[in-house]
Amino acid sequence: MTVAEKWVPSVRYRGDHLLILDQQQLPHHTVYLNVTSIGHVWDTISKLKVRGAPAIGITAAFGLALWSNTVKEDDLSIFLSKLKEQRDYLASSRPTAVNLFWAIDRVAAAAQSATSVDDAKKRIESEALHIQEEDENTCRKIGEYALSLLQDGDAVMTICNAGAIATSKYGTALAPFHLAKEKGWTLSVYANETRPVLQGSRLTAWELQANDIDVTLITDNMAAHTLKTKNIKAVIVGCDRVAANGDTANKIGTFGLALQARALGIPFYVACPLSTLDLVTASGSDIPIEERPEEEVTHINGVRIAPEGIKVFNPAFDVTPAEYISAIITEKGIIKGNYTNELPKLKEEHK
Ligand code: MRU
């Protein structure tokens, strides 16, 4: 069976509700939440029930469609100003992944040229569906480009989950593994468990194992030793926001992997849909880094593992400086170095 047949979609739009795969319950339970209001959408995003930059964007876009279907308002300008309020509300659900803002702005922009409220509602829905469909093609292309950097038999390391469930399908950093499977290649994957909320073990290990891909789980502090001793040919990661100079925000721990890869002479690749490229943000120091509740560090599965009253620092992301990135793999091609010149060119060419 291919990933297409085994695919568990993270978000499904049903007009008056969304079905959202509750990623907090994986790998034990495959449960779809019935999400019926924009407040519920906000909650599922902020509590990581749906997560991963592209999936967050898709969900928020559908959130606006869901909301607009319930609005009883005939005046277009009042409708558009309420739409702006809802856009701002969803924008406050998480700060780092730029796909969130990219998707809701795209949906809100589609409504601006409407001639009536009904027309605006149709445009909102169709734009949201479009974003989801586009993402599938984007991920497949990223996977194909990423595969061109690998060879049959290679071992590769990844962190967090930049997989099918973090996108519309295939994933970004995990796309080459799903496509390799379709091609009959054997790639082996070393997945960092990704503290504090374990998306590597709960999600990546689950997703790759479900597609019969050779995956080995390690704890995050085993990465350097594993890179050195397991003949790893590349590290490939996803991203939440890539600044104009190529600096890349991704799940906490990514920067450490980049440093280790550099020290050991192993290529470090970022899989980046153009929807995650933020040319307005000049460099990584301008990317807002989300800090999350301390319980994510002091507890595992609700059980306290640290002393009461301990001080906690819990950033969800870090920024890998562009100089540590061997290549950025987009759906429109692979960029190696000179990101400040090449990233804007690529985005401009594919507007
Ligand atoms: O906090 P999360 O789980 O939303 O963080 C996810 C990541 O860091 C992913 O690597 C990134 O969003 C890319 S998903 C294709």
Automatic annotation (TrEMBL):
The active site is at D240 (proton donor). InterPro entries: IF-2B-related (IPR000649), IF-M1Pi (IPR005251), IF_2B-like_C (IPR042529), Initiation_fac_2B_a/b/d (IPR011559), M1Pi_N (IPR027363), NagB/RpiA_transferase-like (IPR037171). Keywords: Amino-acid biosynthesis, Isomerase, Methionine biosynthesis. Pfam families: IF-2B (PF01008). Substrate binds at R51, G52, A53, R94, Q199, N250, K251. Its EC number is 5.3.1.23. Belongs to the EIF-2B alpha/beta/delta subunits family. MtnA subfamily. Pathway: Amino-acid biosynthesis; L-methionine biosynthesis via salvage pathway; L-methionine from S-methyl-5-thio-alpha-D-ribose 1-phosphate: step 1/6. NCBIfam families: eIF-2B_rel, PRK05720.1, salvage_mtnA. It catalyses: 5-(methylsulfanyl)-alpha-D-ribose 1-phosphate = 5-(methylsulfanyl)-D-ribulose 1-phosphate. One of its GO terms (molecular function) is S-methyl-5-thioribose-1-phosphate isomerase activity. It comes from Fictibacillus barbaricus. This is Methylthioribose-1-phosphate isomerase. Catalyzes the interconversion of methylthioribose-1-phosphate (MTR-1-P) into methylthioribulose-1-phosphate (MTRu-1-P). The keyword Cell division does not apply. The record marks C160 as: Transition state stabilizer.
